[in-house]
Specification:
homodimer; 313 residues; alpha/beta; Nucleotidyltransferase, domain 5; 2 domains; five-stranded mixed beta sheet; 9 helices
Amino acid sequence: MKKCFGIDLGGTTVKMGLFEENGVVLEKWEIPTRTEENGKYILSDIAKAVLDKMAEKGLNGEDIVGAGIGIPGPVMPDGYVSACVNLGWRNVNPGKGLSDLLGGISVCVGNDANVAALGEQWQGGGKGHDSVAAVTLGTGLGCGIILDGKIVSGSRGVAGELGHVTVNRDETEKCNCGNRGCLEFYASATGIARLAKRHLAASDEASVLRGLEKITAKDVVDAAKAGDALADSVLEESMNWLAQGLSFVTLVVDPEVFVVGGGVSKAGDFLLDKLRRHYNHYTVMTATKPEIRVATLGNDAGIYGAARMVLNM
Amino acid sequence: MKKCFGIDLGGTTVKMGLFEENGVVLEKWEIPTRTEENGKYILSDIAKAVLDKMAEKGLNGEDIVGAGIGIPGPVMPDGYVSACVNLGWRNVNPGKGLSDLLGGISVCVGNDANVAALGEQWQGGGKGHDSVAAVTLGTGLGCGIILDGKIVSGSRGVAGELGHVTVNRDETEKCNCGNRGCLEFYASATGIARLAKRHLAASDEASVLRGLEKITAKDVVDAAKAGDALADSVLEESMNWLAQGLSFVTLVVDPEVFVVGGGVSKAGDFLLDKLRRHYNHYTVMTATKPEIRVATLGNDAGIYGAARMVLNM
């Protein structure tokens, strides 16, 4: 069976995986991301890691379908990257660059959130379904849309930027993007902590959260699970906003399944049951509802998706 | 050059077109839609019209690529229609039925709003672009999403149901769908008339609209164009809601172009300039913006899209 490489290029480390064509990962490892000098060493470091692994395993070019790579920024449909702040890159074509360094093997490049969504669709929470929307609740809200087993990246690379749909026109504070009332302002780890502070300030209701110096999303989940009513209302509000956002995805592309990942998703069905209930409210017009599942690949979603991307080519 | 038929099946008439493969329409005609006895005559009427036209033009099966047909209701990915209220149909597979009546030529079936969007993408306002979102402002708000030149119909047939995204959680009146605050409640011919009544009731501001017994969207557009400030503020509000809805489409699938059709779109750039300005507000995070254009095929969009659908097969 032929093999391929899945590479998840982040601002601190490069996660790498050697895969069988059928989705079995044979080996996983990491190398540091050297961002100095505008990231000029990144591709050659990756190429060396790939070539070393091929030598170690006795693989040559014909054994390899190619390499997929997810990068933390927008990728144009032709693979061009105009700016990738976390890596220091400007005006590069990393796919072509890496392919040249690897003696011409096929290389595919995609945005990391989209690539992780493809991983979850292929071997994770969305396995068995061709059309999947995968949402990651971390510092922000990431989202990738997979239709017919392929990433939808959009004509400007902003497909799946669900974190910045305006759900609340009445918001007064600004989101990082410059707008107000974006979904990720409420539905993310940061958003849950923000809502907790707001709920605490808005009432005198008793809550274990009042004793904490710095409130995290995990604190809120833990408190809610332990029966803290204020913490529970914070999660209700956050999942209500998220449900509204997911309903937009349904009414635009109608995926079979939603997959929710990221640190916050560790709260599992305790959180997702709230999300499902609110989701049903925003989609009264659809007789049947998509499943909303927890992501299963964790930090490996990126290498799986990157591998799948090159196998899909 | 081979030919094909494009059929737009409505509740009152069936619009039909004979097309060249390159998109040139050779002939257009209509037959009545006989909805009696649960629409049992509809497909045989259509088949007779197709066969008569083939005989008239001296065409036989080998000259025809097939027939596409748009129907006013949801169509499952396998062509199955569980209910089409306007036609009286329940649990039918109209594509298979029509193909059998036509001696086995290929037949494709799609939802009429999606099919019309495909027509606009192929030969109308979106010509020259592969990914287009087409919005129709009529009694309601219809929308079709075209990616890579293909209709996105979704796993439950609700892709493009943009009329029912919740844009205003504070709405107190119910939409037809049972929910509150749906986009089409504000952004449609009916929606514009509704907002006009609300604006009139909310102030004593002078307006030519006060003299009218029944206010239509056209009255509002005409008054605004003539300098009526209240009418203008009604259109501003309606286009602000629509802009928010279009921004959802961008942040989910990021089409190259938006095409706006339906009766209301006859207001042209006077209306679309308002839409463009509000749209830019909701998409501050995207450096470049898609064009927002007026639809050009009018009532023929359905037959064009139906023809394209079968040519795409």
